[in-house]
Amino acid sequence: MASKGLGRGLGSLLGILDDEEEVVKAKPVAKKEPPKKVEIPEGEVVEEIAIGLIDNNPDQPRKNFDPTALSELAQSIKLYGVIQPILVTRKGDRYMIVAGERRFRATKLAEKKSIPAIVKDFTESQVKEIALLENIQRQDLNPIETARAMKELMDSYNWTQEALADRLGKSRPGVANTLRLLSLCPEVIDLIEKGKLSAGHARSLVVVTNPEVQLKLANQVVNSKLTVRDMENAVKEVSKENRKSMPKAKPEMSMEMREFKNNLEHKFSTKIEIKGTEKKGKIIINYYNADDLDRIYEILN
């Protein structure tokens, strides 16, 4: 399994690496009190690595970095330095980020020449797994980024939803509900990624199969500030209307009626339609020109 060989203490490592909200959790800058330093797992060595030797992870699951939050983190780093080391792996004579992308970007923004890092040797498969797991565990990924990261893990390692849920410490229904967001139409997904539509609103929309209706309801949330409960009620109304407009299923023709229909078609050499049941209904004999009509008339006589 891909998780084997990740190294002793990796859980502890990820524990110190998955929290990048230093600005939020730190004391207000005005008080000039530095954030509390984190404890490094026993046996791990923190190195100071030059920024120019570190490359971004091309498989980084997070695609959107809030500029304002990044600027705030950079300001904190200018004042106190990086309080949590990033995790990197060797790539020849260079390094690649495994976890801590946001801290790395903020450090560059703060114009620092180096950054504290823990260096560990990982395979490409392990780097991908760790990066995905670390990002999913974060709270500030948008729901679509989380869903895509979950799907990529399942596709890459042939994990079931149960296996992924166990790996993440989440419930299987929770994983399933997040993955279902990827079934929404592209326009609605875009609204979620832009933060205009919450995960709660989006989950309510999943049961709506018509893309146009999905987008219409999503725009109502954006324009009218509907609550999740409002959205759920709107979806219920749409479902009721769809059930009313659905054509009633035709009663299945009995074997005797099918045989009767076949005999008529053989007799008249044309298409026969029977609407109804053995008790009540009508028979339609199709003809396609004047000669056909005369032929049928002669048969009837």
The number of helices is 14
β-sheet strand percentage: 5-15%
The value of Rg in angstroms is: 32 Å
What is the topology, as strand order, of the major beta sheet?
Answer: 1-5-3-4-2
Order of helices and strands: HHEEHEEHEHHHHHHHHHEEH
- Class computed from helices, strands and strand pairing: alpha/beta
Given as residue ranges, the uncertain stretches (5+ residues, pLDDT < 50) are 1-10, 19-32
Give the total of beta strands.
7
State the helical fraction: 40-55%
Distance between the termini: 80 Å
Q: What characteristic shape results from the CA principal axes?
A: elongated
Mean pLDDT over all positions = 80
Sheet bearing the most strands, described? Answer: 5 strands, mixed
Descriptive account of the structure:
It is a single chain. The protein has 301 residues and is of the alpha/beta class. 51% of the residues lie in helices and 12% in strands. The protein contains 14 helices and 7 strands. The protein has helices spanning 10-17, 22-25, 67-80, 101-109, 124-137, 143-157, 161-168, 172-180, 186-193, 199-205, 211-224, 228-245, 255-268, 290-300, and strands at residues 46-50, 54-55, 86-91, 94-99, 114-119, 272-276, 281-285. It has a 5-stranded mixed β-sheet with strand order 1-5-3-4-2. Strands 6-7 form a two-stranded antiparallel ribbon. Helix 6 (143-157) crosses helix 8 (172-180). The N and C termini lie far apart (80 Å).
Question: Can you lay out the helices and strands and say which pair or pack?
Answer:
Elements (H helix, E strand, L loop, with lengths): L9 H8 L4 H4 L20 E5 L3 E2 L11 H14 L5 E6 L2 E6 L1 H9 L4 E6 L4 H14 L5 H15 L3 H8 L3 H9 L5 H8 L5 H7 L5 H14 L3 H18 L9 H14 L3 E5 L4 E5 L4 H11 L1
Parallel strand pairs: 2-4, 3-5
Antiparallel strand pairs: 1-5, 3-4, 6-7
Helix pairs in contact: 3-4, 5-6, 6-8, 7-8, 10-12
